[in-house]
Write a structure and sequence with these properties.
By secondary structure, this protein is an alpha/beta fold.
Length: 151
């Protein structure tokens, strides 16, 4: 029995590096994992790795700088697995100097990176709201509260 049995996880930037390792570890611990990445070949490879070890994964090609793609991705995950319990916002731009406030304050000269960071924040809010609607109650993800009985 894994520590994440019965949980559903979305991992952005899951096509390589830390995101890939996180997706594979979550699957090994029993989670159903949505593998989100911009590169289709990377998405397919991670899903194949997870399934080869008996895990469950859904590959979703997604550009997190596009709000419409974020909504479609979350909707696919919810349709496939019934909700979202865990969200790992791992997608990033390695050329930018830092990430935590870029979506809020913006970095001069780093427009695409700022957009990506704000898209990550939007993904978090969207996934939380989808979970809240499914649980028929609204709570604040910013307050770090449990997003419902699945949490």
């Amino acid at each position: 029995m894994g520590r994440l049995d019965g949980k559903v996880a979305i991992v952005t930037g899951a096509g390589r590096g830390i995101g890939r390792a996180t997706a594979k570890l979550f699957a090994a611990e029993g989670a159903k994992v949505a593998v989100l990445s911009l590169t289709p070949a990377n998405v397919d490879a991670v899903v194949a790795d997870i399934e080869a070890t008996g895990g469950t994964a859904l590959g979703v090609v997604c550009d997190i700088s596009d709000a419409d793609q974020i909504k479609v991705a979350v909707d696919k995950v919810v349709a496939a697995y019934g909700g979202v319990d865990i969200l790992v916002n791992n997608a990033f731009d390695p050329s930018a100097p830092f990430s935590s406030m870029a979506g809020v304050m913006g970095l001069v000269g780093d427009g695409p990176y700022n957009m990506a960071k704000e898209a990550e924040r939007a993904l978090t809010r969207t996934a939380a709201r989808v979970g809240c609607r499914q649980d028929h109650r609204e709570q604040s993800p910013a307050a770090g509260r449990d997003m419902g009985p699945r949490g």
